[in-house]
Each structure stands twice: as structure tokens, then as C-alpha cells.
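This part of the workshop introduces the protein records we will be handling. To make this concrete, we reproduce a full record directly below.
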Amino acid sequence: MTKRKSAPPVTPDVEPSRLREGLPFPLGATWDGLGVNFAIFSANATKVELCLFDEAGEVELERIELPEYTDETYHGYLPDAHPGQIYGYRVYGAYDPQNGHRFNHNKLLIDPYAKQLVGELKWSEALFGYTIGHPDGDLSFDERDSAPFVPKCKVIDPAHTWGHDHRLIVPWDKTLFYETHVRGISMRHPDVPQAVRGTFAGLMVDEVIEHIRKLGVTSVELLPVHAFVNDQHLLQKGMTNYWGYNSIAFFAPDPRYLASGKIAEFKEMVAHLHEAGLEVILDVVYNHTAEGNEQGPTLSMRGIDNASYYRLMPDDKRYYINDSGTGNTLDLSHPCVLQMVTDSLRYWAHEMHVDGFRFDLATILGRYHDGFNERHSFLVACRQDPLLRQVKMIAEPWDCGPGGYQVGGFPPGWAEWNDRFRDTVRGFWKGDDGQLADFAARMTASGELYNQRGRRPYTSVNFITAHDGFTLHDLVSYNDKHNEANDENNQDGSNNNLSWNHGVEGPTDDPEINALRLRQMRNFFATLLLAQGTPMIVAGDEFARTQHGNNNAYCQDSEIGWINWDLDDDGKSLLKFVKRLIKLRNSYPILRRGRFLVGHYNEELGVKDVTWLAPDGNEMSIEQWQDAQGRSFAMLLDGRAQVSGVQRAGADATLLITFNAHHDGVDFILPQVPEGSAWICKFDTFDPDFKSPAPLAFGSTYTLNGRSLALFELEHQKEPNGS
């Protein structure tokens, strides 16, 4: 008997899915040469859809549910995806603001790990997770699709031919920062082609780089380049968030700065700057995002997992802790948020060859719920990371949260912006009372703040101006801020400027006032570059650029915020002086000591590293230090002082710096110093072209004009054989 054949099994008519499981790491969209792995963290979502768009990023072609969920990460692999693919996410979950959850799948979300964004944010009510104008406010739920209004993510191919380029490692003692804005530096530069002005390509034009190189600085510090959002209220007024402290994607350069539309442009800029011996430092904003407070839009992290990414009020999770002053605060105590930030830093350092970072409102990054802690997981993570500990890490050590002022409070391995230097030096040259002792501390790298735990003088990043505040020209030209162009009734910006107009508010034809202003600018530069610590110069200050009294040009993507390269005679004169100063600083290692100058007498060597002298040539007395009317003194740096921990005399030049913030001239008696025969004046800010005609004998009188500074070098005794 023959066995009957069984009928073939009936299979449902289903197209086999092209989607594969993929991996939960690395996070983001990763091209492996065959396809793309998508992975996104969310601890509280119930479902994640990957949305694919056409090349223009305008038409949503497909929604694909990510199939796997591993260790709080949704993931899937698309074998037919490739670089250039435009995508975004929709994330499902509870809409329960009172418990911290704001999921709304109607809102297209930016991948926090997106390496490139395309398109720009178009403000619309559809961007908000709640219905604007609804009686329930942000507790309501909005069902409009936000996709037409949101920048989209783009899958990149990370391959790049770097040639011989690598991160530069400029020693800290030789470092000199040059803070600038990608857009501002090139918008008005005559040698930059119109098509690339305001972009990374504009910054790498030979003439721009040549100016920076010839100035003598070592490190270009760029205001934020991470993709950021323009505030709605600024756009309504025809302005933009020019500075860019409003990040939304920590791995993507802002599309506005890419003339080519390709991220390779950033890498090429870095390579060009490196070729000129210049480091690239990024100003980074990891303390908050552009999503604002509970009334802000849902663009990325709020819709992915609000309760994980942000610090919420413990008693009412509807509201955000606002230590940044911008509406929200990222929660870096959460391991996955911490991972995102450190992954971002490593990406820029490793893949983009960036040499260091300046952290905006860095105190936030080290704050737990009970306050700032130098052993915060973020600070620990940076210190132990084999890559990040090699790059320069600079903190802006303050924010507006509780215990926010932490100058001197960051752990070893970090340098810090020193606002005490800024304020004291401004006050001294303005002629304020009682500045001498503080001024001396600033000239010696603020040892009372930093001389502990093996931190070095370079820890103190000294500055007189920064992007935030008056330019150097305006510091000596205005008593008050003039921010009318910002359209906030001159209410914005700091009122504590420690500025002085020298007799007339703003521009004047008075030659005496203009001469005094120019001399004060030379005094500021000389103080900055002769002080121990790491100096920072703001682009344009070297030739006296003005913002016409605006001390808060954050919204001025205009001639107020851009650098004017059309230099007048005063600008050319100041530039020449600053170049000379930087060369002098580089030629005297004693101005860049790796040890703090403390003024103690070394018995074995018979040397004092720094001596403070009154104009009569004697050491400053306690009474003189405490004299509120004191405006003049001298700083003697002995080149024989021990240079390192090795007990051995130094062989540097011995220098004498004389300061006079009086309006009248002061006679200084030039002191007698061992192993020397006379003093040679290297420069005097009263006359920038001054050259010492002959050595000045010990005990002779040097008249230092009012509001001036002079530098002298010790002429060494000639040996009997004439050497």
C-alpha cells in the first residue's frame, strides 16, 4: 500500500521583513558598510518607530517599529539603508507630565546621537506636545504632526582621509587662547569668498588662518558649533541666537556652518588649523537643551524620555529644575545621559580631531541634587577616560543654581576661566581703591585659588574680555551698556562692567581721550600677557574692534557681532603692539612658570622667586599693601628661582614689571639685583614704539607716566673673560 503524500503547509501571504534585530550599541545610526544599525535609549517608552524620509527630508516614506529592546535601548538593523538616509523617530509612551512623562508619537524627534542634521527648525504650534492656548496648558495633548517643521537626521559615512593630521598637544605653559565665532570672524573678511563667509570653509581661508598664526596665539576656541535652535521670540524680531548656546544635537555640527553641506568640511577646517600649528577648542553646552521648560517644544530628548534626560522638581515632576537659566537642566547623574555627553566628547576628540573643550556653565555638570561635588560622576568619568584626560578641559566654573560659583573648586585636570582676574585687573586700571593686594594675586596665577593638589599656574585661564560683555575697545569707551539693538529696552546684559569711558561716552574726536583709551588697551594687554597663568584673547580685541557699547551681542548676527577687518591707524598700532607682546611672552620662560610664585626666600639658593617693590625700590610694607589709595608698585621676577621640584637654580631672564594706575607720573627707583649690572627697558605702554636707548643703572630713577606699565630686563654682569 502506497503512502499518500501530505499537502504542503499553508503559509500566510506575508512579505519577509527586511528588518533585522541589530545591536543595542553603538547608539545612533551606524553605517557598517553593508547596512545601518539604529539604536536609541529610552527607559520609559513603550514603542519606538524609525521614520524614513526622502532625500529632501520633506516626505515621510515609511515608519518601521524597532523590533528589539535590550538594556533600555530600542534597536534594529536596516540592510538597505546607507549613508545619506534621512530619518527621525516617533516614540510612544505615557503622556503624564505630572509624573515626568511627555511622550507624544505625533512629534518627530531628533536622534540625540545624530551626526548630521538637515533642514532647519520652522516654528509652529505643531512642535509642542501640548495644545497651545488649551485651558489645561501643558497637561493637554496635541495630535498634530510636527515632521514638516523639524530638522531631520542624516546617516553619515565617517570615512575621511586625514593624511598626517592628528590632535595637537600644545603644552599648557605655551598655550594662548583666541576666542572667536565661526561666523563672526569671516563675514566681513575681504579675502573670504562670499559663498563661504560665516562657515567652517570661511575660517580655513589662508588669509584668516595667517592672521591668527602671525598674531602668535596657539589655540582657536570656537563658540558653540553643535547644532542649535533659534529662539522663537528672536525670530519674531528678525534676530537669531547668534552665539549658539542653545544646543539640540551634541554630535552634529550646525548645518548653517557647512557651506558644502558635508561634515567633512569641519574636518578639513581642523586639518588646516592644525597645519598652521593651531589647536581647535570647542565651546560646548551640555548643561541644557533647546527644549526649554514645561512650555517648550518637543524636539528630541523630552519626547524620547523626559524623566531620564532632565532634572525635574522632586515634589512635582511636571516642572524642571532650571540651574541653567534657560528652562531646563540635563541630568548628568543618569548613567545614559552621562554616557551621551562623554560619547559626544570622545566623538569630537577622536573622529573630529578636536584638541579640547570649554564647558559652558560647567558647575551644572558637577552638581548632584544636594549641590556641586568634585567627585560627580561626570568629573570622574572625564578624569579617568584615557582619551579625554589627554585633551584640554576648561570649565566656566559658575552657573545660576545653588552653590553655583565654583572658581577654584574644580578637581585636578581641569583649567578654569578666572573671572577674579577679569574684575581685579579692570578695577585696578580704572583706578578703583584698594586693588593692590588682589592685583598681585592675579599676576601670580591666583595661587590662593589654585595652588593646591598639584594644580599648576596654567589652571587659571586669565581674561579681561570674553564673548559675553564689552569688547576691549568698548571697555575703555563706555561707562554703561548700550544694548538697544537687542530690542529688550536695554534691560539685558550685565550692569557690572567695571568699565570707564575716560571722559566721554562712546566715540570722540578728543585726541587726548583717544590716546588715553589706546594706552589703557595696551595696559590691559600687557597685564594679561605678563601675568602667570593661561591668557585668553577675544578675536578682534587685538585691533580694537567695537560693538558700539553692546555688551550682550548674543542675538546680533549683524555688523555689531561680526569682526570689522577694515583697520584704522589705532587698530594697526595696537595689533603691532600685541604681536610684540606675545613674542616677548614666548621668549621669557619666567612668565610661563610651571610653579606658583609665592614670594618665599629659598635659603639654599639665596633667591626669592617674586618680590613686590614700592616705587622707592624697597619691599612693599603691610601698610603700603593696605593703603586704599595705592596705585603703583613693581613686580620683580628673579630668573635664578627654582624652576621645578629639582633643587637647582634657574637660568631665566630676571624681569622687573612696573605698574602705575595713578593719573600722574610716578618715579620708580630701579633696584639693585645680584648678578646684574643694569636694567634695559623692553617696552613702556605710554609709548608703544619706545626703545631703551641705553641700559639704566641700579639706583637710577625711571619716571613712569600716569596709567602706564613698563617692562625691564636685567642686564647680566659680564664675566672677566668678556663672556
